[in-house]
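Q: Here's a chain of 115 amino acids. Please give me its 3D structure as tokens.
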Amino acid sequence: MSNPAHDTLHASPGNDLVAANIRAALGYNGLDQTDLAQAIGLSDMALTRRMSRKYAAEFSASEILDAATYLGVAPGELFAVRPGPRGAASGKLYGVGTTIMRPLTGPKSSPHHYE
């Protein structure tokens, strides 16, 4: 049975964008939400609520900073809007793109260090 209070509450478009970019970074790095939850000090359920469009739970500024640090990106990259695969034709924008996680090259690069 659904909860009417939760059915009417939704995260903001900004939170949706951050969540989409976090999903992309997790996938790129072969990590899952449990890894991120542990790294930023949230329970799995708390992170799931922040990542879902269904709930009004949103990331705090400190959680965004911690997530960006863990994922090896600048915090602003989690707010980046880029055209999706069909973005140019449809006008739709997605929070994920090919440039969010460009690995550094050279002998000192690591799997968690990105430009």
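Q: Can you summarize the key feature?
A: Confidence is low (pLDDT under 50) at residues 1-8, 87-115.
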